[in-house]
Amino acid sequence: MPELRSYLDTLLRDRERLAAASDLDAWARTEATPSDEESKRIRTLIRRVETDLDGLTDDEREQIKDATQTLRKSRTVSLGLPGIRPPERDSRLERDA
After folding, report:
1. Cα–Cα distance between 46 and 40 in angstroms, integer?
2. Which of 8, 27, 92, 94 is deepest in the core (most CB within 10 A)?
């Protein structure tokens, strides 16, 4: 739920920022502005999740809380950035020199 609410807040903030931006061409503003439909879908999803959570037992809520914490921990694992190996030396070029 916190991620859904945060996403909705971001959509609404972006919408307001773009509406207030005076240096954008109309086409750019239209393309960059989150749609009303997207905001509506997120609001509907939040309401549906809240309704579903209200119907759960305390034990079921606790299981969901535990599963959510496990997922969040796994998301924070850092595998590092991929590295780029230097190109292999071509021994043919060294022989010709």
Report:
1. 10
2. 8
